[in-house]
Specification:
mainly alpha; 11 helices; about 50% helix; about 240 residues; 3-stranded antiparallel sheet
Length: about 240
C-alpha cells in the first residue's frame, strides 16, 4: 500500500497524508487522512452541542427532583456515548462537528464505518484521554502517518476529508458494438454503469468484471473490457 503526502492550504504536510486503498468492490480510492487540528475543532463543536443538550435537559428534568435525576443520568450516558456512534453509522461517518469541518470516519479500506468499529473507536476514547487531555490519543495521532489515535487502530478506522466526487464519469470512448443477443434492461444498466465507473477500478478488477460477459462478448481480459465499452457506447447511442 502506497503512502504519500498531500497538502491542503493552511495544513502541515506532516498532518495530512494520502492513502491509496482498494475497496472490496475493486474501486481504487485515494483517502486524505485528517490531521489532529481539524479533528480537535470537530470534537470541540460536538462537545459544545452535547454540553448544550445536557444543560437544556438538566434544566427541564430538574423540575422533577428525584425522578429527574435518574432520567438525567441515563440521558447523559446516551448523549455522551450514543451521539457519536449513531451519527457516524447513520450519517455517512459524520457527526455535526465532523460535517462542519469537512471530515468523516471510514473503515481503513475506504468502506463506510459500521456499528462495531464505531462502538470500538468511541469506547476507547477513555484510553485516548489518558493520562490527561487526550494525551495518549494525541501522541498516537502525531506518530501515526495517517493520524490515527489508539481507538482508530483498534477499530480499523480512519478520519479523512470528505471529498466530493462526481458519482459517475462519462463512458470512455470506444467503437460502438451492437449486442449479438437481446439484453434485458437491468443488463443494459449494468453495462453502462460499468463503463461509467471503470476509471475508479483497478485494471485487474475491470478485466475480472468484463470477463463475466464472455457469453455475450466472446472475450476475456483486456479485450473483454473493450468489448463491454463498445456495448455501453452502443447502448448510449454513440454511433
Amino acid at each position: 500500500m502506497n503512502l504519500g503526502v498531500g497538502v491542503r492550504a493552511g495544513d502541515s504536510p506532516v498532518l495530512d497524508t494520502l492513502r491509496n486503498v482498494e475497496t472490496p468492490e475493486g474501486l481504487a480510492l485515494t483517502l486524505r487522512s485528517a490531521g489532529m487540528v481539524p479533528r480537535a475543532y470537530a470534537w470541540l463543536i460536538d462537545f459544545g452541542l452535547r454540553a448544550a443538550g445536557v444543560i437544556g435537559l438538566g434544566t427541564v428534568l430538574g423540575l422533577l427532583e428525584g425522578a429527574g435525576s435518574g432520567i438525567m443520568m441515563v440521558l447523559m450516558f446516551l448523549i455522551y456515548w450514543g451521539y457519536p456512534i449513531v451519527f457516524e453509522v447513520l450519517n455517512d461517518g459524520q457527526t455535526i462537528g465532523k460535517r462542519t469541518m469537512g471530515l468523516k470516519v471510514v473503515n481503513d479500506n475506504g468502506t463506510p464505518v459500521s456499528w462495531v468499529p464505531s462502538i470500538v473507536r468511541n469506547l476507547l476514547r477513555t484510553v485516548d484521554m489518558m493520562p490527561v487531555m487526550y494525551g495518549f490519543g494525541l501522541v498516537s495521532g502525531l506518530l501515526d502517518p495517517a493520524g490515527r489515535r489508539l481507538g482508530d487502530h483498534a477499530a480499523g478506522t480512519l478520519v479523512v476529508y470528505a471529498e466530493r466526487y462526481a458519482a459517475r464519469s462519462p463512458a470512455p470512448p470506444a467503437p460502438p458494438v451492437a449486442a449479438p443477443l437481446p439484453l434485458q434492461q437491468d443488463e443494459q444498466r449494468a453495462i453502462v454503469a460499468f463503463s461509467e465507473r471503470m476509471v475508479q477500478m483497478t485494471p485487474e478488477r475491470q478485466q475480472e468484471l468484463a470477463s463475466l460477459l464472455e457469453p455475450v462478448t466472446g472475450s476475456r481480459g483486456e479485450r473483454a473490457v473493450q468489448q463491454v465499452l463498445g456495448l455501453a457506447n452502443y447502448l448510449l447511442g454513440r454511433r
